[in-house]
């Protein structure tokens, strides 16, 4: 069985950093996951019965274990702690005392009863960085509101703006569409990790501090360009937020994304399309004219794409400097030559003992590569190890 | 613009990044207190300074949201003397950041090895489409391509439709992940005194957004594109209301929330097809049809508020006007009003978190004019006198 205390971890970016995580939500768990991937020792405090994320969809068909939990929690340690009980409170105090960073998503109304309100924690552990990450944050009129991914992606503005392009053309009357999975939660978790490492940077000189992070805020942050456009007088809408030409195209054997923003890319696209007569129109040298005639251009491109194979199109496009990419399935990503050469995945042992390849991290440290992999922790494994 | 109480006070960045993803990374770090010096030239400004016709309007509409707080200097990196000055700037900085195609910094003489010669403990962030290594590393791309390569585009979309292109959020998510990794590298440098090269491939951030689906693919399963549905919750989705284009998002986790929803909407919850979560998941389509009927006469905003009071996750699908008017986001300073002598007051996104010990975070000044901070950077930091700078300008080293 693989270890979650890898010997090479002393050389990793966050070696020596001790993180305590209480997570019910993807955001808090992803914050801990990013820190664990970079070498921090992350202890998950789970309630009796385990984190609800252990049962979160999608599940593996054979074992019914959560693929989401496996992804979010590989490399962490697990310790059960009932913080409502005196014994649990003692465990919480002990682990907080050992931690540099505390990531928590306890709802505001429950924090005092569980001993994790920022005033108590800050007074007791002044060097600790305490990051709260909640759907709508811990302050403000909606601090008590709850939200799942679909709510938060729309509360932050991005949900209203999807889908664009081909999907919207095909289904103009359908409801707006969420991004797959937990995009909003991941932005919240990434923001929490960013704030945690920032506050930890200044902790040596100024002591620890409490940071309030909101998933809604994080979605708005990554969607800031739409706010900018509002200031410019344009209210974006999924029907109009589209590239005038380019976008998603169906080729003979799959889908392609094609996007040319610069003049030289337009010239290369014309070459990719084999210099068709319609593209020789002098007026199309003007980018605004191309925008005006975007539907007409896309019609021609669609017709051409339908006659060619994806791999040939992408290879030739990239040779010519035309930004184009295949829409790849998860299996194609998992087995991609590029990903394999870069070591994007590493083997991990799931709770059931099954081996699976899990994404290591969405960044690399070229001087001290991340090992990745390790185990998905069994519930309360730290306590069981201590009593073994 | 000294901000001694900001978390990253004292951190200096030599910023070569362009477009959206890289600049958003350094923008976040600057909001947290880092001093960020943006390096461009008149002949090669950041493309986001220039008007472009992406949406059919010839405007540089997006530069401000990733460039506030930054200092600006000009260096014509085609000139060896400018490269030497860039190296001096890196040598007095804590880190450098770039987002060119792999190999460009090396060709300029500013690759990781060259920078490490002038600053042995440099932290360099290289953010690109596909990373610094691997067979696709030379591929160019934008946010929608990152999503396509990484699998997120394939997994997003209506179940019976085509994949969906990701937009600026994909760029900015890459930038945010880069900021986290860069900060970790700074911690590592503080602990070890050693240099680090952070390599972020934006397509791998897109893959990280489908990490669960990739686990399934690894064990031989074929993940399904769920659209607005959820494999563990029902009802779950985005529903029309009595107001045109005013959608209600809804996520019901358990039986108690289902009963609360039915109660709030004045409907019965006794239908055995919907009595348990397993039953609701099994009858998902009928349930969605039922909810569509129930919600068709409802006011979206009132219903969302009432459902939240009853403990049900609900929210209106907000456009940017809704967001701009939201008292919650204003009170949290997630939205902040900015202005400058020649810029009318407008809204911008505030700091990424609310810090208990300091409010010295967020936007402190707006987008710099090209080269506006050279007195400080070239004069004070690099010690160039006015005659030297005039000479460098005359010879188009500073351009």
Describe the structure.
- The complex is a heterodimer of chains A (388) and B (399).
- In chain A, 39% of the residues lie in helices and 15% in strands.
- Chain A is built from 18 helices and 13 strands.
- Chain A has a 6-stranded parallel β-sheet with strand order 3-2-1-4-5-6, with helices on both faces. Chain A has a 3-stranded antiparallel β-sheet with strand order 7-8-9, covered by helices on one side. A 3-stranded mixed β-sheet of chain A has the order 11-10-13, with no helix packed on it.
- The two termini of chain A are 16 Å apart.
- The model of chain A has no long low-confidence stretch (mean pLDDT 95).
- Chain B is of the alpha/beta class and 399 residues long.
- Helices cover 39% and strands 14% of the residues of chain B.
- In chain B, α6 packs across α8, α6 crosses α9 and α8 crosses α9.
- The relative contact order of chain B is 0.13.
- The longest helix of chain B has 25 residues.
- The chains are: A alpha/beta (388), B alpha/beta (399).
- β6 of chain A pairs antiparallel with β12 of chain B.
């Amino acid at each position: 069985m693989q270890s979650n205390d890898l010997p090479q971890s002393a050389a990793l970016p966050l070696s020596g950093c001790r993180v305590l995580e209480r997570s019910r939500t993807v955001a808090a768990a992803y914050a801990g996951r990013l820190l664990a991937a970079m070498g921090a020792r992350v202890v998950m405090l789970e309630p009796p019965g385990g984190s609800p994320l252990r049962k979160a969809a999608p599940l593996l068909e054979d074992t019914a274990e959560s693929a989401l939990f496996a992804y979010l929690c590989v490399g962490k340690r697990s310790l059960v702690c009932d913080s409502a009980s005196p014994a649990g409170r003692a465990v919480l105090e002990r682990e907080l005392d050992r931690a540099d960073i505390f990531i928590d998503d306890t709802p505001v109304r429950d924090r005092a009863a569980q001993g994790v309100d920022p005033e108590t924690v800050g007074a007791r552990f002044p060097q600790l960085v305490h990051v709260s990450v909640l759907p709508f944050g811990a302050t403000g009129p909606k601090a008590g509101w709850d939200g799942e991914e679909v709510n938060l992606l729309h509360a932050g503005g991005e949900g209203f703006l999807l889908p664009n392009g081909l999907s919207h053309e095909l289904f103009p009357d359908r409801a707006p569409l969420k991004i797959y999975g937990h995009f909003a939660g991941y932005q919240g978790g990434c923001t929490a990790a960013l704030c945690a490492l920032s506050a930890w940077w200044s902790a040596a000189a100024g002591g620890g501090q409490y940071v309030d992070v909101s998933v809604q805020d994080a979605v708005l942050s990554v969607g800031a360009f739409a706010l900018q456009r509002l200031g410019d007088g344009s209210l974006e809408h999924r029907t109009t937020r589209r590239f005038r030409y380019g976008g998603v195209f169906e080729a003979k054997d799959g889908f392609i994304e094609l996007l040319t923003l610069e003049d030289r890319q337009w010239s290369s696209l014309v070459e990719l399309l084999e210099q068709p007569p319609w593209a020789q129109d002098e007026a199309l040298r003007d980018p605004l004219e191309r925008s005006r005639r975007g539907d007409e251009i896309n019609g021609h491109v669609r017709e051409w794409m339908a006659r060619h194979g994806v791999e040939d199109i992408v290879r030739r496009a990239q040779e010519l400097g035309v930004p184009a990419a295949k829409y790849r399935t998860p299996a194609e990503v998992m087995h991609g030559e590029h990903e394999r050469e870069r070591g994007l995945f590493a083997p991990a042992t799931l709770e059931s003992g099954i081996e699976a390849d899990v994404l290591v991290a969405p960044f690399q440290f070229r001087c001290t590569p991340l090992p990745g992999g390790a185990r998905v922790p069994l519930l309360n494994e730290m306590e069981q190890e201590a009593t073994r | 613009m000294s901000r001694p109480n900001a978390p990253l006070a004292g951190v200096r960045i030599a910023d070569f990044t362009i477009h959206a993803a890289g600049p958003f990374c350094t923008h976040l770090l600057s909001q947290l207190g880092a001093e960020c010096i943006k390096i461009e030239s008149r002949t090669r400004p950041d493309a986001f300074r220039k008007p472009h016709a992406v949406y059919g309007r010839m405007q540089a509409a997006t530069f401000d949201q990733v460039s506030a707080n930054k200092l600006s200097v000009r260096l014509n990196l085609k000139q060896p003397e400018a490269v030497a000055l860039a190296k001096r700037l890196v040598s007095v900085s804590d880190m450098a950041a770039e987002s060119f195609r792999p190999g460009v910094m090396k060709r300029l003489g500013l690759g990781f090895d060259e920078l490490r010669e002038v600053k042995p403990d440099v932290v360099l962030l290289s953010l690109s489409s596909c990373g610094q290594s691997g067979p696709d590393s030379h591929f160019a791309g934008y946010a929608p391509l990152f999503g396509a390569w990484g699998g997120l585009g394939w997994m997003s979309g209506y179940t019976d439709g085509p994949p969906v292109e990701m937009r600026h959020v994909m760029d900015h998510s890459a930038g945010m992940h880069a900021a986290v990794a860069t900060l970790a590298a700074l911690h590592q440098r503080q602990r070890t005194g050693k240099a680090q090269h952070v390599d972020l491939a934006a397509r791998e951030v897109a893959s990280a957004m489908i990490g669960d689906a990739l686990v399934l693919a690894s064990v031989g399963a074929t993940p399904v594109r769920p659209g607005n549905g959820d494999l563990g919750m029902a009802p779950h989705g985005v529903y029309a209301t009595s107001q045109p284009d005013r959608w209600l998002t809804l996520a019901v986790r358990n039986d108690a929330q289902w009963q609360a929803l039915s109660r709030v909407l004045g409907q019965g919850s006794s239908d055995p097809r919907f009595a348990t979560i397993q039953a609701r998941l099994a009858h998902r389509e009928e349930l969605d049809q039922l909810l569509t009927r129930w919600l068709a006469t409802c006011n979206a905003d009132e219903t969302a508020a009432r459902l939240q009071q009853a403990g049900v996750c609900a929210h209106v699908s907000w456009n940017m006007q809704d967001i701009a008017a939201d008292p919650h986001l204003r009170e949290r300073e997630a939205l902040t009003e900015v202005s400058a002598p020649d810029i009318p007051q407008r809204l911008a996104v505030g700091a990424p978190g609310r810090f208990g010990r300091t409010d010295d975070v967020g936007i402190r000044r707006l987008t710099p004019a090209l080269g506006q901070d050279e007195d400080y950077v070239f004069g004070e930091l690099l010690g160039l006198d006015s005659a030297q700078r005039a000479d460098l300008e005359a010879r188009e080293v500073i351009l």
